Amino acid sequence: MATMPAAFWTWKDFGLAVVLFVPALVLGSLAGRFIPASQPVQALLAQLIAYAVWFVALRFVFLTAYQVPLLRALGWNNNGWIGSCVLGGIALAFVVAYAGTALDAPVIDPPYKALFADRRSMMLFALGGVVAGPIAEELIFRGFLMPLLAKWMPGAVAAIAVAAPFALLHGPGYQWSWQHILLLFLAGSAFGLVRWKLDSTLASSAMHSAYNLTFLAGIIANG
């Protein structure tokens, strides 16, 4: 049976991480405004800058307080299952798409559709939505928060529990449609179970990236 090593950091550290995200977001937003680009591109660049600033701050905190590299602390390791996780992410996207049809989920233009106006902005979105975004979200939810929850509950339960805030984070982009939030919760649960079973945020990140890439390809194919 899979187990998850107990986190050596505490809820106090998690609170500090949340607090640190505020100035990172402010810096990202300010930097984005000085970039000559359309508003959607500025917003995406601001998000990427905020992620970068935040993780630099977290890396400093972990090295200072625990003398441990951030990625190692958050379970970033290659266990040989990355290819299978990529295939799993593709399959999961098809399952979620079918479930959305079964639930009669409303058709909502994704919040990033404006980035498909030209090839340059589309490539930028691919960097953010297929690479940086999934990695950041997996490290935050499955790398940082999930091991803390696993101190108080079985790892599999923690994997499913952390899918709730993950789904709610994306709620505004889907107009709080309960069907989409439920589908995001199911996808998040799958990412969490992979993280728990394989003890690797690299594995869950690969699955998450492949999942996003599959939906991106479908949107492009459908015009």
Describe it for me?
Helix content is 73%, strand content 0%. It has one domain (11-221). By secondary structure, the chain is mainly alpha-helical. The protein has helices at residues 11-33, 39-66, 70-73, 82-102, 119-149, 155-161, 163-169, 178-198, 201-221. The mean pLDDT is 88. The termini are far apart. Helix 1 (11-33) runs antiparallel to helix 2, helix 4 runs antiparallel to helix 8 (178-198) and helix 4 crosses helix 9. It is built from nine helices and no strands.
Based on DSSP secondary structure assignment, what is the total number of beta strands?
0
Mean pLDDT figure: 88
Give the helix level as a range of percent: over 70%
Beta-strand content bin: under 5%
Which of globular, elongated, flat, extended, rod-shaped describes the shape? Answer: globular
CA distance, first residue to last residue? 45 Å
The biggest sheet, with number of strands, parallel, antiparallel or mixed sense and barrel status, is: none
Structural class: mainly alpha
Please give a quick description of this structure.
The protein has nine helices and no strands. It has about 220 residues and is mostly helical. The protein starts with 10 loop residues before the first helix and ends with a helix.
Secondary structure topology:
Elements lengths: L10 H23 L5 H28 L3 H4 L8 H21 L16 H31 L5 H7 L1 H7 L8 H21 L2 H21 L2
Helix pairs in contact: 1-2, 2-5, 4-8, 4-9, 5-6, 5-9, 6-8, 7-8, 8-9
